[in-house]
Amino acid sequence: MAGTNADLSLDRKCSPKSPAMTQVANMARRLPPSDASIYKQIYAGIMEHYLPPGTKLTEDALAQVFKVSRTRVRTVLLRLAHENIAVLQKNRGAFVAKPSVKEARDVFAARRLLDPGMATHVAERISPEQVAALRRCIARERAAHRAGDHRAMIKLSADFHLELAAVLGNEALTGFLRELVSRTSLIIAVYERPGASSCRRDEHARLVDLLAKGEANAVKEAMRQHLQGIDDALMLVNLGTPKVNLRRVLRELSWRRPEYLYEWTERPVAKGRLD
Ligand SMILES: [Zn+2]
Fold this sequence. Notes:
By secondary structure, the chain is mainly alpha-helical. The chain has 2 domains: about 30-95 and about 240-270, Winged helix-like DNA-binding domain superfamily/Winged helix DNA-binding domain (Arc Repressor Mutant, subunit A, Orthogonal Bundle); about 100-230, GntR ligand-binding domain-like (Four Helix Bundle (Hemerythrin (Met), subunit A), Up-down Bundle). It is built from 12 helices and 3 strands. It has helices spanning about 1-15, 20-30, 35-45, 60-65, 70-80, 100-125, 130-145, 150-165, 170-190, 200-210, 215-230, 245-255; strands at about 55, 85-90, 95. The protein has a 3-stranded antiparallel β-sheet with strand order 1-3-2. It is globular. The structure holds zinc ion. Zinc ion (ZN) binds next to helix 8.
């Protein structure tokens, strides 16, 4: 029943939660954070570029902020490293991954191979409900754009591509794409040209229009062009290391509503790693 699972994931992602669920989530926030919760906070900080590539993820600072042992912090850092979002350097500690120019080119080459073919399959099986859910995702992107919230736009653009993959209900594919999308976000953080826009919302809307009509060949070409547009917005040159106040950023993020933080990390595809 892959289609049913995909429907559920779309609804859970794009619909606001009930007040009761929000209350439960708020109560949960007052308990010591789980490893998954710590992971979400750090992951959100990285994906939305509060913690830019190259930032040192100091174990002591993380343990203090989350009020947990360094052993538990290490478990989370290991998971981030396993997903190529952080790197662990011997005798130096953990850092937010900073993709090299070659890695950036490799990730985009992989996405050019993967995403257009995936979109073709999505066009062949997407349901009207899934089309509607994708349109709701685009509406949220537009709202973030109107509000000038660049960080939300980065997150929602990534969400769009992951939700597209979720239509197929293929956990191996979703997991693979999730890693590539996360790495794409890091690449954009490092290499985006000033003033450039990585994912154009009108292009997402065009992709969904073509999917709704089942135009598999046209959507394949549109996706190829979309990825080329993101690639063109990059400036692939080597840059310096950022300076970030890790404690301050994480404390600010810890005030955010938990339901906002990357629900899709809870999907089965993320399990079996270090959960
Ligand atoms: Zn996009």
